[in-house]
Amino acid sequence: MLEFAYPHTDAQRAFIQKTLFEEKRLPKSLGLKVENVSYDDGLKITYENGYWGVLRFSGNENVIRLFAEMPTHEMAE
Predict the structure, then answer these.
(1) For a 10 Å CB count at each end of the chain, is N or C smaller?
(2) Closest to 54 (Cα-Cα) out of 4, 9, 8, 17
(3) What predicted TM-score, i.e. pTM, was given to this entire model?
(4) What pLDDT score was predicted for residue 29?
(5) Cα separations (Å) of 77 from 5, 18, 40, 60, 72?
(6) How is the chain classified by DSSP, letter by letter?
(7) How far apart are CA 10 and CA 40, in angstroms?
(8) Would you state the torsion angle of the CA atoms of residues 74, 14, 8, 64, taken in this order, to the nearest 10 degrees?
């Protein structure tokens, strides 16, 4: 399991917003089959075997929060 908050500029936020939430281009699948994608509270990607990743903007800081549960720490990073 990995949890991290990445600081971003306004320009980076706009790029992420456009790429992930408007164009709906997903990050690389890490060789795992994507089973579900949800945009309910940020972006949640559920992979085969129950692995998942979540990206969401903080409501009170200039950070994007990343959470991931993967088979290895390296994949989560």
Answers:
(1) N
(2) 4
(3) 0.84
(4) 67
(5) 12, 23, 23, 24, 9
(6) -EEEEEE--HHHHHHHIIIIIIS-PPPP-TTSPEEEEE-TTSEEEEEGGG-EEEEEE-SSSSEEEEEEE-SSHHHH-
(7) 22
(8) -50
